[in-house]
Prior knowledge:
The protein is an alpha+beta fold. Helix content is 43%, strand content 17%. Strands 5-6-2-1-16-15 form a six-stranded mixed sheet, with no helix packed on it. Strands 7-8-9-10-14-11 form a six-stranded mixed sheet. A six-stranded mixed sheet has the order 33-39-37-34-35-36.
Amino acid sequence: xxxxxxxxxxxxxxxxxxxFAEKQITIGLIQEPWxxxxxxxxxxxxxxxLLYDRGADVPRAALLIDKCVNHTPxxxxxxxxxxxxxxxxxxxxxxxEIVLAxxxxxxxxxxxxxxxxxxxxxxxxxxxxxxxxxxDANAHHxxxxxxxxxxxxxxxxxxxxxxxxxxINRGCKPTFITAARKEVLDLTFAxxxxxxxILNWRVSDEASLSDHQHIxxxxxxxxxxxxxxYIPRKTNWNTFRDLVNSKADLLITTIRSICELEVAAxxxxxxxxxxxxxxxxxxxxxxxxxxxxxxxRLTDMRRQVRRLFNKAKRNxxxxxxxxxLTDYNKELRRSKRETWKRHCESIQTMPEAAxxxxxxxxxxxxxxxxxxxxxxxxxxxxxxxxxxxxxVHFPGSTLDSSSPLSSTTEHRIGPNRRTRGRSGVIxxxxxxxxxxxxxxxxxxxxxxxxxxxxxxxxxETILDPLVCLFRAxxxxxxxxxxxxxxxLVFILxxxxxxLELPKSYRPISLTSFLLKTMERLLxxxxxxxxxxxxxxxxxxxxxxxxxxxxxxxxxxxxRIEGAFRSKEIALxxxxxxxxxxxxxxxxxISRALARRGLDTHTVAWVDAMLKERDISxxxxxxxxxxxxxxxxxxxxxxxxxxxxxxxxDLLVKLCGLGYEAIGYADDLAIIITGKFDLTVSDIxxxxxxxxxxxxxxxxxxxxxxxxxxxxxxxxxxxDLGQISLQGIVIEYSNEVKYLGITLDRRLNWNAQLNNTxxxxxxxxxxxxxxxxxxxxLSPKMIFWLYNTIVKxxxxxxxxxxxxxxxxxxxxxxxxxxxxxxxLSITGVMRTCPTAAMEAVIGLTPLHISIWKTAAISALRVQxxxxxxxxxxxxxxxxQRIPGIRICFVTDHMTRELCFGRRFRVLIPERADWExxxxxxxxxxxxxxxxxxxxxxxxxxxxxxxxxxVSIPMGKWPSVFQTEIHAIQTCALLNLNKGLKGANxxxxxxxxxxxxxxxxxxxxxxxxxxxxxxxxxxxxxxxVTLCWVPxxxxxxxxxxxxxxxxxxxxxxxxxxxxxxxISWSSARAVIKDWGRSLxxxxxxxxxxLRQAKELVxxxxxxxxxxxxxxxxxxLVGYLTGHHGLRYHLHKIGLxxxxxxxxxxxxxxxxxxxxxxxxALARLRRGLFQQExxxxxxxxxxxxxxxxxxxxxxxxxxx
Length: 1197
């Protein structure tokens, strides 16, 4: 162990990191760490965890612990000046938990030790725990080696003596050394028994770069065997497939009993896991600690500093030491700075997902520590903490330290002919393929160790056994034992939540992916039945196709706006059903399924899946198992649907009684409108009573403290009655945060705008550490960062609150945020106007981006919901867009799944075509299709036996639509021929069209219609859809291409659009509208004389691909805000304005680019003319402008 006071110094922190890495230290007790913006900095060691009070402005105590060390933070003893943990150490009687703490005793406080340290020692006494405390005591006493005794030292010694605490300090070697004095201020003390275990306590001679020396001591511990793991992404998948193929005979494809079902499940699991291990290599879990910024030069300098420090202690000459220490600190800062810059630049080569994760990485929490119980006391051990978490999140469950696997002898309903037929439909081969492919390959496995990539990489081999296994499990309503294992992990919920409360953590169930695949298929089966017979209530917006949070918010705001137009009050209650997923009874779920007409086998299987979960959770070395007695697993595939079915009854009940309600998962909003205040509040009381009665009947509850009542109205005076919930009076509020946005009672959206922009600014500043004016991320990466991370945080739910951004004050606030991004991207002088920078780098003004996002959302709501949409209020955005009504006939549809494809799809390699084409049936009827789109129109062409068809399609279809329509036309031509038993091959040079038609999922009406046509044709014929490379001399394809171009150049007969507008075309209409707004905004801005002369607004392609220096020069010159004399004179930094090159005119950027005679020859070489007009600059290439500017800059230096 190491104890160190870093005196808030960056250099001392760096030195500590290096020593930790070199000496393989496991625990560091830190006082006065380096702090920046309320966070401890400079102690980021990959294999170590840093604990401190993350709520303190300037933490003065911290612990640095190797991640391999099993520990538990003692949450109630983590503060600004104290950090304590429970640590497991070996003793003669076995493992024992001790308390280890780092403390800082403030020298300006009279109480010593501080009250919190006294409380910690009392806590140890009450719980019979031994302890070690390392502290900077700021107290003198000769007992521990100080040169004198002060009052603080006497008080501390009295306390230590009275509490029978043992001081571990040995000798009188000073722990605090300056040129003025040497003193012992840092103490280590422990309880009596533990003091005997502490070995080798000493003050280190190593230079710490702090006035405090490092203290080192040891506690004996067991040497653990190195753990190994397998890295899924490093699997040799070819070897894996070969191994599974070789073991295919072991897999069972006929199951006649539950026992055989168990054997089949175990056998499949064994084949997959053993093949995975044999095709991968076990690697030790990495515990190496790299200090990337350390160098040989730093090693030499540290050695020199240490030598001079020891010399200064002997001869009391400190000057050489101070000089060497200063140089060492400078080199440390330089090395860390340069390493950080290289790290930032390396981010640009990473995949986007990993790049995003690294950019947004924040300080992690201290982990799960001791938790506060309902009676105000805290848990005392890691095991008690884990048990308490399970009791809170799984109320009524029985805890066990051993795995409570269920018995296989429980009675099960048996299969019958109807059940077997149904299982054959639910679990057919195509659906199983789709379900397996729907998971991300490397998601965390469940208790059986199987992750999706294992299934996806050998699916053809295991498909039949897998289908058989699924059908048998369903037919018997039985879950194999190995599928029941659930790994439970607790993750901290978003937001600033108290770490000591169990409700701040969300329990995520990691279940078997074989079970999840079955759940996905049953989810599809249940949803299809619901859509056909008993759909979910129209006011349920969660987990429903075509609905989302923005649709829910639209529905709510639309109703409030309607009340405003009618001069009514809209009283809304926002409720949160407590622990909805955790507390829903199994009986409630089964009844909800039965009410919807689900068959008994489906209900029985779902019931078995919920009841027979064997849940295990681990914290440190402690593991606790339990069986759930109610609730749906968070993270389960079926869980959202099951909860939706349960809460749907409440929505149906409320709407049946005349109350308006909106449901989104466990969030419920009740809306009561009317003109009379007391009547409205009385109706709300009745509605809340109905909700409470329903909750009681289902074993659920509403948290009154989270219930918010907001009277939405334009009126200033209200006379609403008092409303209470479970005896607690609910106060009326002026605003509420619902589904991520802040609604105020007058819908002014002031709070929403401010909160959104503040959040976006914080997000941007979190990214700001990755770049500077001359270093770090490139302009292109910063541009990407802003558009991908920051801007979406602003435009979320813009559909409902965009009207606010019409106000000048709101536009100014938006510009303030965007200005930060523009300055970061361009690096120009801070005097440069925001609009000018936006115009050069092509960044849409933020308020216009909000309008465009709102328009796209409004169009989506208009097209994909069956709700009545008004054209006033927030939906009036659509009225502003010319030509938008044609987009109401869109090709977009709610995603639909289709299985059982009858036609064959073939995408040969290009080399196959170079060798004469793929081998198909010799007597096949060969058809060729193609699509074309030009500036004046689009068309499709079909070429086949005795057939040449050219179809004009007008200007609206996309290229993709023309390709699909050509294939569809070909299918219809063959259908009209009435062919039976023919071999038909349809060739297309569009892989996108072929892949869309071979997919299971359709979101385009045209693609779905084409698919249906091919299915009808393939029902009586052998149909192959084959790819052919375009423009490669294939005669049929060339003929189809000519017919398509002929169609695109021909005039369409009849009205336009020829077919439904594609979603991309609809978005293009909105994009064009946004572009016109940009140009209008730019043209109407006052000032910007020089920028408007020289800048071609929003027209420079890939300008952010320039390096930082070139982009800074270009933007500075085009906007006139560069370090030339004229501009410097305007801002008071120069007395002269004459051009330094010609002395004939003011030194402006226009003069340098267009008129300066000193650069005439250069201009002739670049632009073929000696002098330029501003319009010539606008039309010039970026490359030539950069060359001119660079030369001018060189001459001006």
